[in-house]
Amino acid sequence: MEVIYAQILKLVLAVVFGGIIGLERERSHKPAGLRTHMLVCISSALITIISVDYFGNDYARLVAGIVTGIGFIGAGAIIAQGKEGMHGLTTAASLWVAAAIGIGTGIGWYVLSGVTAILTLAILFLGRLEKRLVK
After folding, report:
1. Average pLDDT, 10 consecutive residues per value, the chain (135 residues)
2. Contact present, 97 and 36 (Cβ < 8 Å)
């Protein structure tokens, strides 16, 4: 019974960590916001939990599948707009980080995943500072 509580804790933490990043993206009116980041993070955590618990040391292939799949989702967030350049690169990168945080949480690296979520939030807030400095 303790194992199931540990797995539930991992999923809840993945939702919290993904939510931290997603909330900032939502407040910035980006295409991938709160729910998307939470879903990416929790799904990555669940896939990792299943991989570790049922495939033992051979979970690298499933983790590689997560990274590849998120690459496709991130590509969908990137929009080329002629001479204006690309839009959505930061959102795509934040989705990739959310997946990595989910993987870390699924493995049980709570502190590392939490610190990564906080650092990612700080990096995303730098974008607002960057816009103010450019003006």
Report:
1. 90 97 91 92 94 79 88 79 72 94 95 97 88 75
2. no
What are 15's two structure tokens?
Answer: 């939702």
17: containing domain: 2-134
Spatial separation of the C-alpha atoms in residues 11 and 25, rounded to whole Å: 21
Nearest CA-CA partner of 96 in 125, 120, 126 = 120
CA-to-CA separations, 12 to 33, 37, 41, 57, 117, in angstroms, rounded: 18, 13, 10, 24, 14
Handedness of CA 30, 21, 46, 70 (dihedral sign): positive
CA distance 123 to 48: 26
d(CA 28, CA 33): 9
For 61, the enclosing helix (H) or strand (E) is: helix 60-77
pTM of the model as a whole: 0.88
Count of domains forming the chain: 1
DSSP state of 87: E
Cα three-residue angle 52-22-45, rounded to 5 degrees? 5
